[in-house]
Amino acid sequence: MLFAATMQLLLLLNIATPAQAQSPIQKFDDRVMIDLMEHRTPEKTGFFRFMTNTCNYGNLGIPAGLFIGGVLGHDQAMRQNSLYVASSTLISFGFTTLIKQIVKRPRPFVQNIQIVPVYRAGGYSFPSGHTSSTISTATALSIAYPKWYVIAPSFLWAGTVSYSRMYLGVHYPTDVTAGAVLGAGSAVSMSFLRK
């Protein structure tokens, strides 16, 4: 279901077609990337590099923290929610990897030489793995603990990491959009695991 929805988004965005005649979506993607590139500053670049590097720390640290808190506090619900958050992120990672191998969309700086990245990421572009995993973690955490003081910082973190992927020149807006759909869908689809 989740895989089918992401593939439908791919077809809707018209990404899988050859670049002979650029789609309006591809033109939009290119314009956004070039605009972001032209407005970089050393301060913003440093901040967004830092944020992009928090991805794995958050994705691993949040469920680990829940698990440790659940063990130390003898809280079975917290331990169960750690499994839910970790599973959601793992499912998101698996689908992201699979879709990247099917679509094989080149990174923005490979597809358009006018786009200069802050650093050259490897692999394929669609969908954004940083986005899918952080949105999955934030969504699962917010479903497990639906309080404003959990939801707001979770999505602020995930949204900033997602934006950083475009700012740094390694993902198109459509890559980030698809990653967000995939991440949120993974968390919702695994919500039967939450306590």
Task: Please tell me about this protein's structure.
With 195 residues, the protein is mainly alpha-helical. It has one domain (31-193): Vanadium-containing Chloroperoxidase, domain 1 (Up-down Bundle), CATH 1.20.144. It has helices at residues 2-13, 24-38, 42-53, 55-72, 76-103, 108-111, 129-144, 148-167, 173-189.
Give a quick set of tags describing it.
195 residues; mainly alpha; Vanadium-containing Chloroperoxidase, domain 1
Brief characterization of the structure:
By secondary structure, this protein is mainly alpha-helical.
Topology:
Blueprint: H1 2-13, H2 24-38, H3 42-53, H4 55-72, H5 76-103, H6 108-111, H7 129-144, H8 148-167, H9 173-189
Helix pairs in contact: 1-9, 3-8, 4-5, 4-7, 5-7, 5-9, 7-8, 7-9
* Class by SSE composition: mainly alpha
Strand content: under 5%
CATH topology label: Vanadium-containing Chloroperoxidase, domain 1
CATH class: Mainly Alpha
Distance between the termini: 23 Å
Poorly predicted regions = 15-19
Can you give the mean pLDDT?
88
Number of strands: 0
**Shape, please?**
elongated
Order of helices and strands: HHHHHHHHH
In CATH terms, the superfamily is Phosphatidic acid phosphatase type 2/haloperoxidase
Helix content: over 70%
What is the number of domains? 1
CATH architecture type: Up-down Bundle
Total DSSP helices: 9
